[in-house]
Amino acid sequence: MDSNTLYYSLELVAGSGNTLTVEQRTALQTSLVILKKNYKFHRVLFWGKILGLKEDYFIAQGRGEDEMQDKKNLYSFNCMDWFLVPPATDSMIEEVSKAAKGRFIGDPSYVYAQLQIRRQGEGDDAVEEEVEFKVNEESRLAVTVHQIDEEVSVVPRGAFIKSPHGLVQINRSFAGLSHSEAGKLDNFLHFSKANNLKKKSILVMGDLNPAVDFLDVLSDDIPEGSWSLQFERASTVCVLRSLLWLGLTFYHMPMTPQHGYIYIGDGSKNLDLPFML
Questions:
Q1: Domain total of the chain
Q2: What string of pLDDT tens digits covers the 277 residues of the chain?
C-alpha cells in the first residue's frame, strides 16, 4: 500500500486482525519518505511484514518509472533502518526450495541446511550419496517476497495502463470500480507477468483492451475458490483475502482510486488449499 496513505489504509485492512502499532506506523511514515528521496523512487509502498521467531521483517517496495519492472524491495527490523533485498534469481529459488524449511528466524545471516539422498546408476550398480543444500535467510526472504508478489499481488482493473512501448504506469484517470463491479473477481487482476492472457484473448475474441487488459484475472486462478471477497465497513470497502498465501489482504474503495494490499504472515504458502476447498 502506498506510503502516502499508509495510516488511513491500514485501518481498512485491520479486519484481518493483523496491524501495526502506533510507534511502527509513525516510524514508517517518516522513514519511507527518506527512503523515497535517498533511492530516487517515484513512489514507495509498505509491502508488509514477515513474522520471525526472533525478529520480524518489515518490507518496503520502491517503484520506478515502470511500475512492474522497476521494483526494489528493502527490509527493516525497526521501521527506520532499511537494507536492500537481493533480487530473486532462478538458482536462488531452486536453492531455497531445497534447503529452507520451517519458520523464519529473523536473522538474515542464518543458514538453512538440508541433507538429501541422491541415487546414481541403476540396478546393482546404483550408488546412494548424501548431498547438503545450504541457503541463508536473506535469500529466502528475497524468494518469498518475490513469490507472493508473483502469485497474489492484486490491482483493480483499470488502475494501471500499458503504453504502446510497454511501459506500465498508474492510470491517473482511474476513478475506481463501481459497487457491482467490485463484487466480481473478474475485475481484479494479478500485478505480475501475465500467463493466461493469450488463451483469454482467443476466448473473448477482441473484447480486450490491450492498454488495460494486459494482466491475468483472479477468477482464472487454480484452485477455484482461492480468494475470499467481502464488503466491509457498511459496504464502503471491498476486501480480498488470499487463501493460498494466508496474510495477504487487498482493499479497494469503490468509486474512488483508493486501493492497495499488504501481507502480514509467516511467509508460508498454504499447500493444503486444494484439499480444504
A1: 2
A2: 898 888 888 888 887 777 889 999 999 999 999 999 999 999 999 999 999 999 999 999 999 999 999 999 999 999 999 999 999 999 999 999 988 889 999 999 999 988 877 777 776 667 777 778 889 999 999 999 999 999 999 999 999 999 988 899 999 999 999 999 999 999 999 999 888 765 554 344 456 778 888 899 999 888 888 999 999 988 899 999 999 999 999 999 999 999 999 999 999 999 888 888 6
For cell 465497513, the residue is 233
Q: Which domain holds residue 103?
A: 91-139
pTM: 0.89
Grid cell, residue 71, equals 521494483
C-alpha cell of residue 189: 487482476
Do 12 and 83 lie in one domain? The reply is yes
If asked whether residues 114 and 176 sit together in one domain, one would say no
Identify whether residues 97 and 224 lie together within a single domain. Answer: no
